[in-house]
Amino acid sequence: xxxxxxxxxxxxxxxxxxxxxxxxxxxxxxxxxxxxxxxxxxxxxxxxxxxxxxxxxxxxxxxxxxxxxxxxxxxxxxxxxxxxxxxxxxxxxxxxxxxxxxxxxxxxxxxxxxxxxxxxxxxxxxxxxxxxxxxxxxxxxxxxxxxxxxxxxxxxxxxxxxxxxxxxxxxxxxxxxxxxxxxxxxxxxxxxxxxxxxxxxxxxxxxxxxxxxxxxxxxxxxxxxxxxxxxxxxxxxxxxxxxxxxxxxxxxxxxxxxxxxxxxxxxxxxxxxxxxxxxxxxxxxxxxxxxxxxxxxxxxxxxxxxxxxxxxxxxxxxxxxxxxxxxxxxxxxxxxxxxxxxxxxxxxxxxxxxxxxxxxxxxxxxxxxxxxxxxxxxxxxx
Length: 382
Known about the structure:
Blueprint: E1 2-6, H1 16-31, E2 36-42, E3 61-65, H2 70-79, H3 85-89, E4 95-98, E5 112-116, H4 121-124, H5 134-147, E6 150-153, H6 156-166, E7 173-175, H7 190-200, E8 206-210, H8 219-227, H9 231-236, E9 238-242, H10 250-261, E10 266-270, H11 277-282, E11 286-289, H12 298-305, E12 310-313, H13 318-322, E13 326-329, H14 334-346, H15 348-362, H16 367-381
Parallel strand pairs: 1-2, 1-4, 2-3, 4-5, 5-6, 6-7, 8-9, 8-11, 9-10, 11-12, 12-13
């Protein structure tokens, strides 16, 4: 099969969509090298020419659309007059995979299109979506779903929501979950943990949150919960927030500053590269992820694979991801988060049990398994 992958998401900072696209395409090309894979992207005049983000040994081709600049194509798409992408690429692939919510025009009837819709946060939690992106998503995701040959999503929760909201035939939707690379995410040595602790000036013991700092992730709930902890627990456990700047984070940053001013032990690492994350996870006493809504929740797998007890919300896809390997709480209750944190930090038997269950749960998710599921979808379409 001749498979093309729209690659604009690959050139952004580490996000769930970026990780999903890159890791899934790598695993599929590595596991099934008999097929042809081409990632394509646009040139932007204000940015350096993008480079192939994949290792050469995988044989994934990389193609730049040169006839129309990226910004110009995006405008034409918004106006409804964008030229078919297969014409611009001067190619007729068997399948074009659009991994980032929106499907661009394709003229060839022989070419099937696969669209990934990861979640419906822009529908159910529009207040947490950037106001510039919200109208775009509401308009174009619906149209893209209607025109796509098949829909890919990442959890049972997301599939149910897509069926209910867009009235899609369940047979038109396949689930291919994200995963993690277990050769990267595993408990690190004390020496590695000490080095990373020194690099980021982390406390000896800490409660960890790792993701973008944005309202949907309920970072303020974490801050409120930490501030309400018993002083003895706070004395021995700091709070570490690892992640890049998110949209609408002004209130979060204000709360952090206020808590720091009254002496709370809070550390912000900012964006941490992939190679540092396993040691940051491994050094944590526990991981908290009380998000209001998720399509999946890759950080939960990363934390469990590194041997960290997990606390997360009981909503959307999160119970699917953690199974019985985490303490589930109501995201809306900072008091519930505080209670769960206190429980794990004060009960070593519980923490040990969560670690053991977490290892087993994380092992259920591998990129090779996901690649096999994706190939079956490709074969079904071709």
